[in-house]
Structures are given as structure tokens and as C-alpha cells.
């Protein structure tokens, strides 16, 4: 990292108040990492983040937190590292000696994991092992608490619904298989060495900061562009897929809470409400003043505008009968997870889990944010969102 205010962890340790808790976040540049960093800084933590080398700027989601004179009060430090580079993780862990590690870094796109399965395993399966080994070999076993970003994708093909902590796993992608290893190695280091290590089995969570290749953000970005006359049609894969979608800000609060308990255990975090991809499209379109009508079925399904709300952005640029969404068979996955629905009763009872955002609020927040982006800075919209052939 060249142009961000980075101190070495050793420098920072001498500058900081002794009482502040120290957290290390991997994946701090991602959706969850950015919200978690905000939460921990608000709580007075000193936050260290691992940032990997890329050819471009990848700190866009946390730029507002960087800089010694901002609200973070100079308590945020970034370190170059990579989950596939054990030496970098050991070096950073030794320097920071964190009270809490949040392992959020991952190749997190399920469809991409079919294209890069080996890399996905290196990052998502062996990455957590490297972090746990660093904790153990540095003698931090009884000092450092560890959070692993586990996933509802672990349930994959299960026929049990809703899914809870006791539901058997049946992974259905290289991503899910790698996360399965990470889940069990986290349990193993808890049982074998007494490390406070736990898995948050989180169901899908979204936000205006969601990556543009995930279906919710792909939909809100594309429909916002369509409403502004910048794009004609949105291509999608499996419209029938059912997901339990929450807001990322609610979910990172649970990640923190899981590390504040008397003993470590694994928790499902989910809203307990399920919607289809098709319903998400309709909801987002409705926020933009478009009412849709579906025709065809399966691989030929498409949605046309059947009503336009007067005065909406869409009314100025779209026309009745316009096809705004259609299925592209190329966007189906080799093996699909058709339906996920979480039962977060344990987290509700033991951690006081009450999500603050409803599905409708989530859709509205994402649509409004992307409409503002399309109207003010259309060139800033990621290419993945506008390229019609992008991967599902
Ligand atoms: P994102 O894809 O938004 O963020 C992933 C983060 O990991 C980014 O900061 C990325 O860096 C970083 N990263 C990727 N590869 C490496 C690597 N080799 N070394 C170091 N860092 C790397 O994911 P989310 O924030 O949505 O998810 C956070 C975690 O939670 C992930 O592990 C994901 O699998 C898991 N999860 C997510 C759910 C969701 O619905 N969001 C649900 C359940 C689990 P860069 O910015 O450079 O790309
Ligand atoms: P998912 O999220 O695979 O559940 O993983 P994604 O948004 O990619 O897909 C959700 C469902 O929508 C279907 N779908 C499409 N998906 C994408 N990305 N693009 C499309 O065009 C499209 N059309 C239909 C998919 O087939 C799927 O059924 C997310 C990630 O955040 C993981 O890291 C995390 O572990 C899980 O959620 C829980």
C-alpha cells in the first residue's frame, strides 16, 4: 500500500492507549470488513486490517475511515498481507498480537469458485488454518479470540428447512467445500487447543456496499441504470433461487457479539424470511416506479414493464412493454443451491439477535443508493454490473 496512512504495527503499539482492545480484520476492504471496522472503531477498538496487493485501488469501502484526523482518531492501521501467504500472516499476527481476529477474507463468489477452485481452497480453507496456526505457534492460544466467516452455503443441498446449527452440511460448490474445511478446522482448534474460536454461519447479507457481481447488487445497479436510460436489459440466471437476505450492518454486530461471550460456540445468523430472486427483481423495480409482468418460463422467462409510476425516474426513460429482465442460461451454475432459510433461534435467545432492517428497507436502501450513483456518476458503476455476459 503506497498512498494510505499506514503505520507499522510495532509503531502503532507504542502510540496507543493500553486499555483499548485490539482487533485484526482480514477482508477489511470487503462489504462486511468495512461495516465491522466502523463498528469496532465506534466501540473504541484499535483496528488493524489486512489488505492484499492488487493492481488497482481496493480500499474504496474504507477510505472514509483512513487518516489520523478523522472520526477513527488514528486507530485504524492497514498491513499488506494475503491469506495465501502464511509468512505475511505470521508477521502481522506477531506484531499486532490482537485480542480478537475476524477472518472475513475470502474468495467469496460462489459462481467464481467453479472457475478458480484451487485458489478458492487456498484462500477459504487454508487461509483460516494459517491464521489459527499463527495464533497457536505464537503462544496466543489463551489471548486471541477468533471469528470465522462461515456460510449458509455449507447447507447446500440439504432437504431440511429451516437450517439451524444442528442441520447436516451438504456443500454444493468449491466455495462451500472450502468453507466446510474452514468450519471444521475452527471447531478443531477450539477443541484441541482451547482457543476461543467460533463460526458465524451467516445467511446472505447485502447492502449498498455489496459487490456488484452478487445477485442483489447486480439487480439494483442494473435496474437503476435502466431507469436512467443507460442500459436496456438485465440478464440473470436462476430466478427461482430462494434466499434469506438480511442487511450486512446487522450481521457484523453479531460477529462482534459472538466474540464477547463466556465461551465460544457456533451460531446461525439469519432473518428467517425467504424470497426468490424473481421477487427481489420485482421489489427493486417497484422502488423505481416500474411494475413488471413475467412471461415465458424456465430458460425463456422475461419481465416487461406493465405500468410506470408518473414522475419516477423510470417514467422519463422507459416505455411500457420494455423487457427489463430476462434469463440467460449461461448464468446458471454447474450445481445450484436452490433454497436457503435460516433458523437463528439460538442467536436470538443467547445473543439477543434482533435484526434492525427488514427486507423492504434493505431493497429500498440499495435501490436509492444505486439510483443516486447512476444519476450522478454513471461512469463509476463497476463494469461487472453493466457487462451483459458477466458470470452469475
Ligand atoms: P467480500 O467479497 O465483499 O470481501 C472479501 C474480502 O476478502 C475483501 O476484502 C477481499 O479483498 C478479501 N480477500 C479476498 N481474497 C483474499 C486473499 N487471498 N487474501 C487477503 N484478503 C483477501 O465479502 P463479504 O464482505 O460479503 O463477506 C465476508 C466474509 O463472509 C467472506 O468470507 C464470505 O465468504 C463470508 N460470507 C459472506 C456472506 C454474505 O452474504 N455477504 C454470507 C456468509 C458468509 P479485495 O477487496 O482486495 O477483493
Ligand atoms: P450466493 O449469492 O451464491 O448465495 O452467495 P449470489 O448473490 O451470488 O447468488 C444468489 C442466488 O442468485 C442466483 N442468481 C444469480 N446470482 C448471481 N451472482 N448473478 C446472477 O446473474 C444470478 N441469477 C440468479 C444464484 O444462482 C444464487 O442461487 C453469497 C455469497 O456472499 C457467499 O460468499 C455467501 O457465503 C453466501 O451468499 C451465503
TrEMBL record:
It catalyses: GDP-alpha-D-mannose = GDP-4-dehydro-alpha-D-rhamnose + H2O. InterPro entries: GDP_Man_deHydtase (IPR006368), NAD(P)-bd_dom (IPR016040), NAD(P)-bd_dom_sf (IPR036291). GO terms for molecular function: GDP-mannose 4,6-dehydratase activity; NADP+ binding. The keyword Glycosyltransferase does not apply. GO terms for biological process: 'de novo' GDP-L-fucose biosynthetic process. CDD domains: GDP_MD_SDR_e (cd05260). Its cofactor is NADP(+). It holds the Pfam family GDP_Man_Dehyd. This is GDP-mannose 4,6-dehydratase. The gene is gmd.
